[in-house]
Amino acid sequence: MGVTSYTHETTTPVAPSRLFKALVVDSDNLIPKLMPQVKNIEAEGDGSIKKMNFVEGSPIKYLKHKIHVVDDKNLVTKYSMIEGDVLGDKLESISYVLKFEAHGNGGCVCKSITEYHTKGDYVLKDEEHNEGQKQGMELFKIVEAYLLANPSVYA
């Protein structure tokens, strides 16, 4: 098994605490409202396992994440994708660390580390990461636009 890591930073005029609440704390409720391809997000067991179900006809049926850390004080979350169509037969899991830090005039910088844990001797291609990064940024931009249009939400 190999591990390939990528880092990424994105800035936004949205305050870090609001973005953290939207993308991490209340994502189970907010994401299905904003993204029509997401049917629902189910918490399993003690809530540390989250299953995101997609609508029928979507190229992805579901994704399952294990939540390792949700640090409300430092605005950090750590989680891993442990099941789902995205992993296919080449990936064991994908681990994520997201940190939301104050930046500029009330905005924030979102720093992410993504680690792909591959099966066997498979080597991840940059294009594969870029496609996942693109989808993650689409979600980020949708949530950002919602928060900018609704300044009292998660304030």
TrEMBL record:
Bet v I/Major latex protein domain span: 1-150
PROSITE patterns hit by this protein: PATHOGENESIS_BETVI
One of the record's GO cellular component terms: cytoplasm
Keyword annotations of the record: Pathogenesis-related protein, Plant defense
Xref: InterPro entries: Bet_v_I/MLP, Bet_v_I_allergen, Plant_def-hormone_signal, START-like_dom_sf
Molecular function via GO: abscisic acid binding; protein phosphatase inhibitor activity; signaling receptor activity
Protein name: TSI-1 protein
Native organism: Solanum tuberosum
Organism lineage string: Eukaryota, Viridiplantae, Streptophyta, Embryophyta, Tracheophyta
